[in-house]
Amino acid sequence: MDLTDLRDGLxxxxxxxxxxxxxxxALEPGRCEARLPDRAEQHNHIHSQHAGALFTxxxxxxxxxxxxxxxxRIAELRPLVRRATIEYTNVAHGPITAHATVNGLNDAxxxxxxxxxxxxTVHISLxxxxxxxxxxxxxEWNVKQPTPASQRR
Length: 153
Hints:
By secondary structure, the chain is α+β, with helices and mostly antiparallel strands. The protein has a single domain, classed as Hotdog Thioesterase (Thiol Ester Dehydrase, Chain A), CATH 3.10.129. It is 30% helix and 35% strand. The protein is built from four helices and six strands; from the N terminus they run ααββαββαββ. β5 and β6 form a beta hairpin. 32% of the residues are buried.
């Protein structure tokens, strides 16, 4: 499956990510790579990447991995992040790259077919240009098929 159009659409879809210069650089089903440039206005008081910018990078990569894993069905789904955690492991200098991977994608698709809803987890590792991990994050997504208007109370 060619995910180029999906990647380009996701890059255009979130104004805050564009504001920070975050770019999704690679998508595969259930996987995403995203990059945060090094810009002075994104630095903190010790002149490293701001924690908020790193969290937003993890969020963008998580969304890319999630959407690419559900690409064939995304138009019929309503996804929401239920929980997100991040652990900052090293000072982040320079451009940062995030690698996100969906866990339990097949189980989630089966749950969607069976129950109309599913939960899945995306794991993200953020690293600098030297390959040093600067943070790791986990996003839990809840996805469901919208209830048709005729079935709502």
